[in-house]
């Protein structure tokens, strides 16, 4: 860290301030931990039935990690967003031969392993309403096991039983499958998905049943991506009951740290487009 701050004979007070803030926030010392600061910012244009909107967002991530003499890897992360002046992620992670335990506000274990779902293969899901499934940031405890013969199991829980769930992913070569079950205290959801990758092409299918008895709702999904150099093309078809949604988009990495994304989505008689420029460091 000191070498970075004073590199090329320059004294940058802003970098010292950021480094000091990181050390204080994570309650660790530079001698015992690796500290990294990263971030990103985006400018988005959304055009849908409600009109055209411009939005910008960004975040700063401060991460500290160290390894104990017994082989445990200890990590603390603070992810602050610009738009709402809020905390997107704030958690600690303890990892070892037993797997990893993550505690705090962040994507829970189910969300971290649902990349197999087609809805997570596209660019933005522009214009979709109520046809996607799955959790977002929550405050709780998650456990992820080590991979054994291609199988990883995981579970999550929140206070007072508000949300709990478990799942398993199996990966063998180009094939990955996922099973998840979660309960938010009033409704249950069971999700299955599979993805096959061959060179630059990935194809995924998924299904979920949400609710109980006569209130049960079925979700069905299919998606595909194709990567050609620095360009990724993606498309998904989503269905919740009788409501259908489809889109097509692309993401172009102009240079390391600079991307341009575009997508067009259709749900019923409503069309939407999404354009975005993003930078990261």
Would you write up a description of this structure?
The protein has 281 residues and is mainly beta. It has two domains: 1-40 and 58-97, no CATH class; 109-281, Beta Barrel (Porin). 8% of the residues lie in helices and 61% in strands. It has three helices and 16 strands. The protein has helices spanning 2-5, 13-26, 109-112; strands spanning 34-48, 51-67, 73-81, 87-96, 99-107, 137-144, 151-158, 164-172, 175-183, 188-198, 201-210, 217-228, 231-240, 243-255, 258-267, 270-280. The protein has a 16-stranded antiparallel barrel with strand order 1-2-3-4-5-6-7-8-9-10-11-12-13-14-15-16. Strand 10 (188-198) and strand 11 (201-210) form a beta hairpin. The longest helix is centred in the first third of the chain and has 14 residues, at 13-26. It is globular. Residues 1-19 have low confidence and may be disordered.
Order of helices and strands: HHEEEEEHEEEEEEEEEEE
Number of structural domains: 2
Count of DSSP strands: 16
Mean pLDDT: 88
Strand proportion, as a percent range, falls in: over 45%
**Major sheet: size, sense and barrel closure?**
16 strands, antiparallel, barrel
The CATH architecture of the largest domain can be named as Beta Barrel
CATH superfamily of the largest domain: Porin
What is the CATH fold-level name of the largest domain? Porin
**What is the class of the largest domain in the CATH system?**
Mainly Beta
Q: Which regions contain 5 or more consecutive residues with pLDDT less than 50?
A: 1-19
């Amino acid at each position: 860290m000191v070498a970075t701050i004073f590199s090329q004979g320059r004294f940058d007070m802003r970098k010292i301030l950021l480094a000091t803030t990181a050390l204080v926030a994570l309650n660790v010392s530079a001698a015992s931990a690796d500290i990294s600061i990263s971030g990103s910012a985006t400018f988005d244009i959304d055009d849908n039935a409600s009109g055209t909107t411009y939005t910008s967002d960004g975040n700063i991530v401060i991460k500290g990690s160290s390894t104990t003499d017994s082989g445990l890897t200890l990590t603390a992360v603070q992810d602050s967003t610009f738009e709402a002046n809020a905390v997107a992620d704030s958690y600690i992670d303890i990892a070892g031969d037993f797997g990893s335990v993550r505690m705090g506000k962040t994507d829970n274990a189910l969300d971290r392993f649902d990349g197999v779902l087609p809805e997570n293969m596209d660019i933005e899901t522009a214009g979709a309403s109520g046809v996607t499934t799955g959790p977002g940031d929550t405050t709780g405890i998650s456990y992820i096991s080590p991979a054994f013969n291609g199988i990883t199991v995981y579970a999550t829980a929140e206070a007072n039983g508000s949300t709990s769930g478990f799942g398993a992913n199996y990966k063998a070569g180009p094939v990955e499958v996922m099973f998840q079950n979660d309960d938010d205290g009033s409704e249950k959801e069971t999700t299955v998905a599979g993805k096959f990758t061959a060179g630059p092409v990935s194809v995924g299918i998924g299904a979920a049943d949400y609710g109980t008895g006569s209130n049960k709702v079925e979700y069905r999904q299919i998606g595909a991506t194709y990567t050609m150099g620095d360009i990724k093309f993606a498309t998904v078809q989503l269905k919740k009951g009788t409501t259908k949604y489809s889109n097509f988009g692309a993401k172009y990495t102009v240079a390391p740290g600079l991307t341009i994304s575009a997508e067009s989505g259709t749900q019923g008689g409503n069309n939407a487009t999404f354009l975005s420029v993003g930078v990261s460091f």
